[in-house]
Design goal:
By secondary structure, the protein is of the alpha+beta class. The protein has one helix and five strands; from the N terminus they run H-E-E-E-E-E. The strands form two sheets. It has a three-stranded mixed β-sheet with strand order 1-3-2. About 5% of the residues are buried.
Length: about 100
């Protein structure tokens, strides 16, 4: 179990076994902060893609979108957060009454 208790940790051997059992070449996953926007691991059998630039307005990370062509070759578009002066800040609204 992960240090936060929110998932499982895994390594190269588990990934290799999972891919072989399920006849997969690659696992594409998300929901783990990657400062570079994406990261290949375990001999390119896993790629993590993170699509939230400057996560929580404080991490300073870039974000990425993975694109696949018709032959399933991947490429990545990297992008930064919008500058503060052009980014709209959502209004704080009171919670709906059904939460009160």
């Amino acid at each position: 179990i992960s240090p936060r208790g929110a998932g499982y940790l895994f390594g190269k051997s588990v990934v290799a076994q999972f891919c072989q059992t399920n006849k997969l070449e690659k696992i594409c996953r998300a929901h783990q902060l990657v400062m570079e926007g994406y990261k290949h691991m375990f001999d390119d059998t896993v790629v993590t893609v993170w699509s939230a630039p400057n996560y929580c307005y404080r991490c300073g990370n870039v974000a990425a979108i993975m694109e696949l062509d018709k032959d399933l070759n991947s490429s990545f578009k990297i992008f930064n957060a919008a500058p503060d002066e052009v980014r709209g800040v959502p209004e704080k609204k009171p919670p709906p009454e059904y939460f009160l």
